Amino acid sequence: GEDVEQSLFLSVREGDSSVINCTYTDSSSTYLYWYKQEPGAGLQLLTYIFSNMDMKQDQRLTVLLNKKDKHLSLRIADTQTGDSAIYFCAVSGTYKYIFGTGTRLKVLA
Amino acid sequence: DTGVSQDPRHKITKRGQNVTFRCDPISEHNRLYWYRQTLGQGPEFLTYFQNEAQLEKSRLLSDRFSAERPKGSFSTLEIQRTEQGDSAMYLCASTGEGTDTQYFGPGTRLTVL
């Protein structure tokens, strides 16, 4: 079945760049997403990339997609303490998303 | 447009009780999804509606679970005879016509004692 994997933790210093990685198995996904979840809250859509794109930039966020290796990454430039949260990548199936287990980003002041 | 809303935000119940959650999608979104998220995991798909029709149910949705979307607008998710293993965050999402992007509500956190 479809599988999405992420590393569990990432710790960076305020002002540095963060790179969160995701690998997936289903190559038929049309869109790939990044969501942010703060404690006790729902999922906030951050950005997404269409499967025929290699890169998408949106202010401090850069998404890179390597379809050959089925690898997706999210780079956050100038990481701030407010970016501390859990980040989920999700791949779109026929009617549902398949989510990774999430990467907990901790930003050190 | 206020986004997807869910009610209640928190529910504590005793094992064996029935609970019902409500989701109000973004207006005019015709597709509505329910997911379950347990601690330390990503959300897992439960069920999906297009308008009032329930088109898909996950094997996670045992016969104690039922979901409805009677008028194609809000949806309810009922869990009968709750078990401690049902403790989780229940998330609702909606999508509009011609798009794949799902917008999530704040979730209902269920604790079964």
Task: Annotate the secondary structure layout.
The complex is a heterodimer of chains A (109) and B (113).
Chain A: E1 4-6, E2 9-13, E3 18-24, E4 31-37, E5 43-50, E6 55-58, E7 61-66, E8 71-76, E9 85-92, E10 97-99, E11 103-108
Parallel strand pairs in A: 2-11
Antiparallel strand pairs in A: 1-3, 3-8, 4-5, 4-9, 6-7, 7-8, 9-10, 9-11
Chain B: E1 5-7, E2 10-13, E3 19-24, E4 31-37, E5 44-50, E6 53-57, E7 65-68, E8 75-79, E9 88-95, E10 103-104, E11 108-112
Parallel strand pairs in B: 2-11
Antiparallel strand pairs in B: 1-3, 3-8, 4-5, 4-9, 5-6, 7-8, 9-10, 9-11
Can you describe what's shown?
- The complex is a heterodimer of chains A (109) and B (113).
- Chain A has strands spanning 4-6, 9-13, 18-24, 31-37, 43-50, 55-58, 61-66, 71-76, 85-92, 97-99, 103-108.
- Chain A is mainly beta and 109 residues long.
- In chain A, the strands form 2 sheets. In chain A, strands 2, 4, 5, 9, 10 and 11 form a 6-stranded mixed sheet that branches. A 5-stranded antiparallel sheet of chain A has the order 1-3-8-7-6, with no helix packed on it.
- In chain A, strand 9 and strand 10 (97-99) form a beta hairpin.
- With 113 residues, chain B is mainly β.
- Chain B is built from no helices and 11 strands.
- In chain B, the strands form 2 sheets. In chain B, strands 2, 4, 5, 6, 9, 10 and 11 form a 7-stranded mixed sheet that branches. A 4-stranded antiparallel sheet of chain B has the order 1-3-8-7, with no helix packed on it.
- The radius of gyration of chain B is 13 Å and the shape is globular.
- Chain B starts with a strand and ends with a strand.
- At the A-B interface, strand 4, strand 5, strand 9 and strand 10 of A face strand 4, strand 5 and strand 10 of B.
